[in-house]
Amino acid sequence: MDKGLFLRALIAQALAVGIVFGVLVALPLGDDFFEDYGWVTGPVAWIACSLVTARVLSIPAGLVLFAALAGGVAGALVALVTSHTIGLMISLLVFAASCGGYDPERDEHDARATA
After folding, report:
1. In a domain, 42, yes or no
2. Which range marks the domain in which residue 94 is found?
3. 71-102 pLDDT per residue, tens
4. Is residue 110 part of a domain?
């Protein structure tokens, strides 16, 4: 695992999620919006933030979408047992760990081997 990539992915995703959270809280949506549509707003925002992270860190979108799925599922399970905040922290850590396993040199080597 690339610890530097892990930290960069963690920070980039946390910043992206934090910005989206700030925007959503600032909008006059009301608590009913989040109770009625939070189940779809959260995952869509999470995926969008993941794609931003992929772009910023030059990680393949497919890998980042897998990392988003893994982090999202892990976080949702933890949130069911504990709280949304702890679930989000777990989501971020699993996401970053999944991204940290990316090796651009191996990816380049595999591309040359199949060509």
Report:
1. yes
2. 3-103
3. 999 999 999 999 999 999 999 999 999 999 98
4. no
Tokens encoding 95: 């996401």
Q: What pLDDT, in 10s, does the model give residues 42-54?
A: 899 999 999 999 9
Three-class HEC string of 5-60: HHHHHHHHHHHHHHHHHHHHHHCCCHHHHHHHHHHHHHHHHHHHHHHHHHHHHCCC
Say if 60 falls within a structural domain.
yes
Radius of gyration of the chain, Cα coordinates, nearest whole angstrom: 16
Number of domains composing the chain: 1
Model confidence, pTM: 0.85
Q: How far apart are CA 6 and CA 15, in angstroms?
A: 14
